[in-house]
Design goal:
The chain is of the alpha+beta class. The protein has helices spanning 8-22, 32-39, 54-60, 109-114, 137-142, 152-158, 161-173, 179-188, 197-208, 213-223, 232-244, 252-262, 267-277, 281-299, 307-313, 318-327, 336-341, 355-361, 367-380, 388-398, and strands at 27-30, 47-50, 64-68, 73-78, 81-87, 89-91, 103-105, 124-125, 131-132, 145-146, 176-177. The chain folds into four domains: 1-139, Beta Polymerase, domain 2; 144-229, Hydrophobic Seed Protein (Orthogonal Bundle); 248-343; 348-402. It has 20 helices and eleven strands. The longest helix has 19 residues, at 281-299. The structure holds adenosine-5'-triphosphate and magnesium ion.
Length: 405
Amino acid sequence: MQVKLTHELFQEAIPVIEQIEQAGFEAYFVGGSVRDIILDRPIHDIDIATSATPEEIKSIFSRTIDVGIDHGTVMVLFEKASYEITTYRSEGTYSDHRRPDQVEFVRDLKEDLLRRDFTMNALALSRTGQIIDYYDGQGDIKRQQIACVGNPYERFNEDALRIMRALRFMAQLNFTISHATLEAIRALNEQLKLISIERMTIEWHKLCLGKAYPQAIRLMLSSGVAEQLPAIDYFRKSLHILTEHPIQWRDEADVWTTVLFLSNHSSDMVHHIQTAYKLSNQLTQQIKQRLLALNQLNTRLDKKWSNKELYELNVNIESAAHLAAQLFEDFKDDDASLRYNTLPIHSKRDIVVTGKELKQLIPPSSIYSVILNDIEEKILNHHLQNEQNELLDYIQFNYKDYLCF
Ligand code: ATP
Ligand code: MG
């Protein structure tokens, strides 16, 4: 098969491949970008594989960085871009079910493609647009199926993460999993326990953000893979609900907010999930915020929130409203987030008159809080603008009796 390499990522990289070829070696595009060009999906990055050793690559290009030299990867800086170029390699035995005991550089593309996870990911593409397909990747793409290269039992025994990868590609591409590959997933999923949580979390997030995630989660539940997810006892029920009533998610915080919400979470569950999945503090904060907002929206589904009530929620409900609109049948107030964002102030801290300005007008007293509550209310109802002169004039006029002078 011949494809057109019109995408600028390919166009920019062609001179890099030409330079390697001029030095007497082979180089091809490999991996996800080749699969995605056939599927007409967006290309986000490209991988290049070569018959040249890392040392040979370093002698061909003047600007290089050793990024993963033990695994055969050199970064080449070429014009304005950088390229990770990996030497063809074959992988030996995998005694820990995660990493090869040793990698060996080879000169044959076919051997390099043999070590890859799925046939659709074991394609190569020449700089002229010729697809090289030793393992019927194109046939599987046509059949819309995910199948291991070679024997699935061996492949999952080598690296159990491939089980999660199969399910995440299923979710992203809306493909099925071939019979033999599925059988091996059912048999070997317990080995996922050996995989580092960081690698698991990346695949789990990608899976959930794939458009066919309900099918992938259904298969996870029926094949035993779900049981290998960390802390699954906290949210198994949510996964079952989601397969029946899928929610459209926009990011990872949406995923966890929904999963925890549906499981009648307690507040320390967020903490358990953060630890179990090694989530960043930033993501954990977002999840907490969204859960709080979602719970508050859930307390009052039938009525429209007034500006004052939105203000008192004191959380940005924008993202939670996206979930609430799907989770709660009676949630009608879908402009609430817009109104929240356009509130003149979001907390007392936003009021431009503070204790400092008040002190110049009025001796310290409990009247301060009365004044601040009063102007807060008037600003929210657009009776006053949050503008210092206007607020000070208002205070001087309405609280005359308390003034210092
Ligand atoms: P994405 O579009 O998500 O980047 P990808 O297929 O490019 O998908 P990467 O993780 O970027 O996935 O890996 C690039 C290529 O490396 C894959 O296409 C596959 O050929 C190979 N690969 C990656 N991870 C594995 C693995 N665990 N086992 C075998 N081959 C793998
Ligand atoms: Mg990739």
